[in-house]
Amino acid sequence: MAQATQTLDAVIRDDETLYLNKDDVHEYNLQLQNRTAVGDRFLPAGSIIRGQFEPVDGGLRYVADSVEVGDRILDLNAVSETLTDRKDPRQTDTDDIIEDAAIGAAGGLIIGEVLGDSDLLEILGGAAAGVVVGNVTAPTVVVIEPDQSILLYQN
Q: Is the entire prediction scored with pTM above 0.90?
């Protein structure tokens, strides 16, 4: 008889980083990292965990409903802790910050011209505002790396 475990260690089955919208449900299969006992059965490493990422406060959590072992599908009831959201790193890199600053500086110059007092302060103020607004408006996503361990806790 197998000794039941409380956690399953899994990873996404993808070679690329996932950027998941924190407000949507995302169906993904995970892959079991290690041989694990669930109830009175052993699940071999590489077993496919079926489920989805679901929105919760602060990000997403993975909810598993079954596991595929060879040609058999077994029920599974397990969830991850919250995978926290953050600013989309694809939109907060140096190039995006420079672009936001340039847009803000142009806006500051235009405002200065309209008001008849275009000087360095308006341009610098616009550039700073562009950086702040660009970072604030970057969407929040849950980032999951290909080798990131996702611990699932059995219910």
A: no
